[in-house]
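Example 3.2
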Amino acid sequence: MADCCASNDNILLFSCSGGSNVAQIANDAAKALDQLGQGRMYCAVGVASRLPSFIETANAAGKRVAIDGCEVHCLKKGFEAAGVPVDVHVVVTDLGIAKGHHFNYGPDDVALVAGAVGDKLGARPCCSGGGQ
């Protein structure tokens, strides 16, 4: 599996992690993608806070993936304000998951979002399933 996913080493994954189900789904999807070798999760708040070393690392990435929870697009807007481009943007609510101020969701919701990111990245089939 490592050889299959080697081309994804320079992809950074950033996620919303706010106080709603869709935010936590975004965060869990980024963690799952990292565990599957689809990229490396990195600190979104460090970039949005305009910390120089975080911006430098984000700008050096081959691709930057932003997974926002809802239509407010806090993550993407934070990156725009910091001058860091977003190459792939996925919004959880755009995938048909309703936002609620609760944390009731399941693995199917996380898989839906991770799959949408994988589709946008053009993930190869050998990288899209299984675990570590």
